[in-house]
């Protein structure tokens, strides 16, 4: 039984990586192999039972049964789900054919904590009709999501413009990635960096975005900001990206 679950976890990651132009290694799992345990997962904006199933390599029917749901569609944003026998989360990054995306723009949240749900609610209050303005959010482990966890927003799923950088028309042509944290005062965690490198490699490879067009918010002409912060490790980030 354990081997079946292990193969499911590995198979899910391989399947999701198959869309890239070249193999891209997902973030490293914890040392000691795949450890399965019951966890609580809070449903983020745009998440489905299918996505959560792939994320933790747990069959959809097991999630439905453990939470006494009427169907796999019976999910609500913010709902806490029990995930029985969950593997460590595996990135689920959907790629869609598009000629729209020319840049990747990196941000920090400028907050100590947060996640896609919290930012979605905050952006709604600020008047963003579609809520969460970023396409992806990478956790720092300060909240309910583990360190390095990649959240994919409804804007990305629906292939909508972002609401993360007006300067340079980046909301239309730039994929917005937000790392949780204030990097004027703290540093990117190693798990965040691994996840960011993985995500940027996948996106840049698929959409043929060159390194010079993978930039920070502060590097967009006309943007008056320090985002993603003075402590963002640009030298390490550039070194670990493909040429």
Short summary of the structure?
The chain is α/β, with parallel strands linked by helices and 243 residues long. Helix content is 30%, strand content 14%. It folds into two domains: 2-86, LysM domain (Membrane-bound Lytic Murein Transglycosylase D, Chain A, Roll), CATH 3.10.350; 103-240, 3-Layer(aba) Sandwich (Lysozyme-like).
Question: What would you call the structural class?
Answer: alpha/beta
Q: How many structural domains can be distinguished in the coordinates?
A: 2
Shape: globular
CATH topology of the largest domain: Lysozyme-like
Level-1 CATH class name of the largest domain: Alpha Beta
Q: Look at the structure and give the mean pLDDT.
A: 89
Helix/strand order: HEHHEEHEEHHEHEH
Query: Which percent band covers the strand fraction?
Result: 5-15%
CATH architecture of the largest domain: 3-Layer(aba) Sandwich
Q: Count all strands and give the number.
A: 7
Count of helical stretches: 8
> What is the rounded distance between the termini?
42 Å
The poorly predicted ranges are 1-23
Rounded radius of gyration (Å):
18 Å
